[in-house]
Fold:
Amino acid sequence: MVVSKNVNIADILVSVIVPCYNQAQYLEDALQSVLEQTYPAWECIIVNDGSTDNSEEIAKTWTERDPRFSYVFQKNKGLSNARNTGLIVAKGNYIQFLDSDDFLCPEKFKSSIEIIKGSIDNIVISNFNIFFENVNQIKPPFCILKMEYFNLESILLDWDNKFNIPIHCGFFQKSFFEDFKFSEDLRAKEDWIMWLSFFKNNPNVYFINTPLVYYRTHRNSMTKNLEHMRLNSNKANTFLREFIPEKLLIDYLYSNLEKKNSEIINLEKSIYNIKNSRGFKCLEVIKENRILKFIIKKISK
Structure:
């Protein structure tokens, strides 16, 4: 359903999609942050992606507590599939994603809806803060979001260098998802492909420079698995021809080559410095002496 300028803002329904997989210990906080929204017209779709912990028990408790919560179970198919499942079920005019280990500020929906004023083809992006385990120990974000970054070129060339946008910072008109589904071949970078897909059409963007979402970092975060991220970055690159003009794509490839070349040069410098360090030379001497002693021992026999 497209939101027209004649729609009463109070009639806009927000669909919140919460995928969960074996993170029951965080799920309560995430759902509580939805319940505490000051804007009341929402539905929250909890998609259990084959969890083996007590996520189902928690989710069903919330559906009994408030009918705006609903629950979907599926066999484990990954985060992208769980989000796609939520999009199929969603009835709202706007989409809000929320991972089960993060949470929202109570003003997230209200602030986003008030700034769009019923206009169409728009995305609202709010700022964010981060925390580790204790939700009371909020830290500044890992990057500074700026309005100047919200365009196709910056999202392509500067993503993960200057910034990236946690998906729950976004507040999306549902029509954006009519021609987009999350790739189930990607286990990371699927959100980057989403942003590129949307920004190729130069949407209306509103920026709320206030932290309205809270992003949890923890030891087991897959973004800390460098090999996992590298493999999925390479996979994500195969999608770029669908969204990126040829000239901009060439700029991106050159930028990547320069980055890799810089990494190689820095690695070579590190190896050179190690080989010329006093400690390394001492170890080489010890190694040579051991080999010499071994040879003498063999000859003496």
Q: What stands out?
A: The first strand starts at residue 14 and ends at 20.
